[in-house]
Amino acid sequence: MRQLKPEYQWLLPAGLESAVPARRSTRDWVVDLLCFVLGYGFTLLVTIDLLREHPSVVPEWDAAPTWLIWLDFAVGTIAALGLWWRRGRWLIPLAVFSAVTSLFTVAAAITCMIMLFTVAVHRRFAIMAVFAGAAVLTNAAFPLLRPEADRPYWETMAWGVVFIVIVCLWGMVVRSRRQLVRSLRDRAERAESEQQLRVAQARSLERNRIAREMHDVLAHRISLLSLHAGALEIRPDAAPQDVATAAGVIRASAHQALQDLREVIGVLRAESPEGTPEPPQPTLGALPALADESRSAGVKVRLDVRIEPATVPDGTGRTAYRIVQEGLTNARKHAPGTTVDVAVDGAVGDGLTIDIRNPWPLLNPSVAIPGTGTGLIGLTERATLAGGHLKHGRTPDNQFALTAWLPWPS
C-alpha cells in the first residue's frame, strides 16, 4: 500500500493518523538531524553550565541541587532521542512525555518546543489545542517548582505563554500551507485526469464518426458492385456488350469506392480548420448524382426535390444526403427491381422532410448483399443528434417507408 508522506497524514480520519508509518525522505532526515542537534545541544549546554559554580547561560537556576541537574539531563537526553521518532505513531506518546517533564525541566526546553511544533503541524487543531492547553498549565506550575532568582512569577509565566503561542501559530501556518499545496496538487492531478479523459472520449467519438462515415460512403459503392457482379453471375450468357457495360460500371464503382476510402482515411491525417466540414461531405446538391449512380445499377429511382438545395444549411444537407444514400442502399439490398420514390420537401422554420418509399419485396432477393444491420440505427442516431427524428417500417399499403424530419432554422 502506498504510504502517505508525514506532511500529508493530517488528511487521514481520526484515529488513523498515528497508525500509518512514515517513509522518511532525505529532507526529513536533514530536518530531524537539525532538530536533534538543536534540542540535545541545548541540553548539553544547559547541563554543563548548571554544573559550574557560577552559571552564565542560565544563572536564574544556579541554586538547583545536583541530583535535579542530572535528572534534568537524563530527561533532556531521552526527549532529544525521541525527536527521531516523532513522525508517525510515536508522536502523541512523546508529546505527552514532553508535556509532563516540562513541569520541571530546563535542559529539555527546546526539545519540548520542537515536539509541540510537530503536534501543531501533523495533527488536527483539536489535538494541538489540548497539548497547547497542557503546555500553558505546566508553564504556570514551572515557576513554582523552579523559581527564577531575579524574575517575578508572572513575568516568567508570561514569557512562557508567549513562546507557546508563537510555536503553535507557526505550526498552524506550516500546516495550512501544506494543506494548500496538497489541495493545489490534487486539483492539478484531477484536472490532468479529466483532460486525459476528455481526450480519450474525443478519440472514441472520432473513431465512431469515422466508422459511420466509412459505412455511409462505402456501403453505397460496394452495394453497386455486388449488384452488378450478381447480375453477371446470374446471366453468364449475356451479350458481350452487356458484360462490357457491367464490367465498366464495376470498375468505375470500385475506383470511386477507393477514392472515397482515401478521402475518409485522410480525415485522420489532415487537420482542417475548426468549424469547417471535412471531406467527403456531400450535401443536397449531390442528390441527382446519387440517383444517377443508382439508376446506372438498374435501380428505378424517382427523385423529387421540392426545395432549393443551396438554401439548406450545410449540416442539415449533409445529414439529409446520408439518409437518402442509406435508403437507396437498403432498397438495392432488400428490394431489388422495385421503384424507389425519394421526396425532399420543407421550408425555413418548418424543417426538412425526407421521405423514401419502395414496394415491400414479395420474394427474397436471389443475390443477397451482406450488411451489418446497423445502417438504420446509425441514421436514427444522426437524425437525433441533428435535433430531428427518423422513423421506418412497413406501411398499411404494403410499402417500406423511411421518413425523417430535420430542423431547418431561420
From TrEMBL:
Biological processes, Gene Ontology terms: cytochrome complex assembly; heme transport
Organism domain of life:
Bacteria
Alphabetical keyword list:
ATP-binding, Cell inner membrane, Cell membrane, Cytochrome c-type biogenesis, Kinase, Membrane, Nucleotide-binding, Phosphoprotein, Transferase, Transmembrane, Transmembrane helix, Transport, Two-component regulatory system
Catalytic activity entry: ATP + protein L-histidine = ADP + protein N-phospho-L-histidine
**The EC number(s) this enzyme carries:** 2.7.13.3
One Gene Ontology cellular component annotation held by this UniProt entry: plasma membrane
Span-the-membrane segments of this chain are 29-51, 63-85, 91-118, 125-145, 157-174
Name the top EC class. Answer: transferase
Q: Where in the cell is it found?
A: Cell inner membrane
- Residues forming the Signal transduction histidine kinase subgroup 3 dimerisation and phosphoacceptor domain are 206-270
Q: Which CDD domains match?
A: HATPase_UhpB-NarQ-NarX-like
* Primary residence: membrane
Molecular function GO labels = ATP binding; phosphorelay sensor kinase activity; protein dimerization activity
Q: How does it sit in the membrane?
A: Single-pass membrane protein
The cross-references to PANTHER family, in alphabetical order and at most eight, read: NITRATE/NITRITE SENSOR PROTEIN NARX-RELATED, NITRATE_NITRITE SENSOR PROTEIN NARQ
According to its UniProt entry, the function of this protein is described as: Required for the export of heme to the periplasm for the biogenesis of c-type cytochromes.
Entry's family note: Belongs to the CcmD/CycX/HelD family.
Q: Could you tell me what this protein is called? A: Heme exporter protein D
From what organism does this protein derive?
A: Paractinoplanes atraurantiacus
